[in-house]
Design goal:
By secondary structure, the chain is mainly beta. It is about 10% helix and about 35% strand. The chain has three helices and 28 strands. The strands form eight sheets. It has a nine-stranded antiparallel sheet, with no helix packed on it. The chain starts with a helix and ends with a strand. Bound molecules: beta-D-galactopyranose.
Length: about 375
């Protein structure tokens, strides 16, 4: 190689390096008060950390391997200003003391199992009743949200990604079978955040994994989400009892406050006196997604916030989605930027199977057997209008 070409290559290499450095600085500024060192500690004898990835269009995602939690998600608004649109805390210590579900992957069974009991292949299992001594919620006293996963940043054909793995031992929280779980968060240059779930077991078990981010498209600290416009691609939902356990009925949304097949503001009917709205203390229900074929990746939901112009679409292979309007938030949780997460200031769109499926043989099965693979994908796609 001649000298001039070599020098040119060197200049190119240095300028590339400078560009990379610049990117890092930009990322630091826009990721606000969340610093990697505040996530580098040891919990349950395992190392926790913070992983940051970004796409070409300024979307930045920060994930901790503690609970496979999304900590920040910076998305540009209609003026090109980046804002963090998910709930989270600034350090691991806050996650340990605070609301453990903010941004977490919930499992082994997301949502509720009535009285924490189920029977599989003729054998009875008793799980923790971690919701007021009544039901199992989101996998038990120490679910996947409280586990330290292994984490690494990887490159995939679709974009940069954070890969997380967890081995949940046989008997973990009372569930049978060693479960090997993998969750990959990928940021694409089409402004998608893809969540890929995979799991295998060595004994028959039940599984229902979900992503529990609280979104506020106006910004995580922007207050009530009631003026977001929501669409849910669901003709039916599963009504609940006073403990938020499905009654077993599958009810059409037609003519109810649950009909989001055309856009409605979240707040429009949230104070209705309909029994189901009252029982849910607002929206806290499982919607059955319209699908021609189960397992297809199809449109599930969208949310639009006029002020910022941010528009989020959700696609999933899961059969259902839990729409929750932050009815239990009371301002006691102080998160990033010192913000108090007040009543209904975030909403969750948790793609999943139906709650309490192990006790409802007519619901889609959540049983996973050795030799089978639990494999699902959910896509959150961002744009502005
Ligand atoms: C949601 C659930 C709510 C509440 C929340 C965690 O998935 O539907 O009822 O338990 O998680 O606070």
């Amino acid at each position: 190689m001649n000298r001039t070409i070599l020098i040119l290559l060197l200049i190119l290499a240095v300028s590339c390096q400078q560009k990379t450095k610049k990117t890092v600085t930009v990322m630091k500024i826009i990721s606000g008060t969340v610093e990697q060192e505040n996530f580098q500690t040891t919990y349950k004898n395992l190392k926790t950390d913070l992983f940051t990835i970004q796409n070409q269009n300024g979307i930045v995602l920060q994930v901790t391997n503690y609970g496979a939690k999304i900590v920040t998600l910076f998305v540009p608004d209609k003026s090109g200003n980046s804002g963090d649109i998910v709930f989270g805390y600034e350090k691991i210590a806050d996650y340990l003391e605070g609301d453990k579900y903010f941004g977490a992957v919930v499992g082994r069974y997301a949502n509720r199992i009535a009285a924490g009991k189920f029977t599989l292949d003729g054998k009875d299992y008793q799980l923790p009743k971690n919701e007021g001594g009544k039901n199992l919620l989101h996998g038990g006293d120490s679910g996947f949200d409280d586990a330290v996963w292994t984490g690494e940043v990887i490159e995939t054909p679709e974009g940069k990604a954070v890969k997380l793995n967890l081995v949940s031992p046989d008997g973990d929280q009372g569930f049978p079978g060693t479960l090997n779980v993998e969750v990959i968060y990928t940021l694409t240059d089409k402004n998608e955040l893809i969540v890929d779930y995979k799991a295998v077991t060595d004994k028959p078990t039940v599984i229902n994994l979900s992503q529990h981010s609280y979104f506020n498209l106006a910004g995580h600290a922007a207050g009530p989400i009631l003026s977001h416009e929501l669409v849910l691609n669901a003709d039916r939902f599963t009504p609940v009892d006073e403990n938020l356990i499905p009654t077993g009925e599958i009810r059409p949304v037609e003519g109810t406050a649950f009909d989001f097949r055309t856009p409605h503001l979240i707040g429009e009917r949230i104070a209705n006196t309909e029994e189901q709205v009252v029982l849910g203390k607002g929206y806290d229900h499982n919607f059955i997604l319209n699908k021609e074929k189960s397992g297809d990746l199809t449109f599930a939901a969208s949310a639009y916030e006029k002020g910022s112009g941010r528009f989020m679409e959700v696609y999933t292979t899961h059969p259902a989605i839990q729409f929750y309007t932050g009815n239990f938030l009371d301002g006691s949780q102080i998160g990033k930027d010192g913000n108090k997460y007040v009543y209904r200031s975030g909403f969750c769109l948790e793609t999943q199977y139906y709650p309490d499926s192990p006790n409802h043989p007519d619901f889609p099965s959540t049983v996973l057997r050795p030799g089978e693979e639990y494999k699902h994908r959910t896509v959150f796609k961002f744009s502005v209008k």
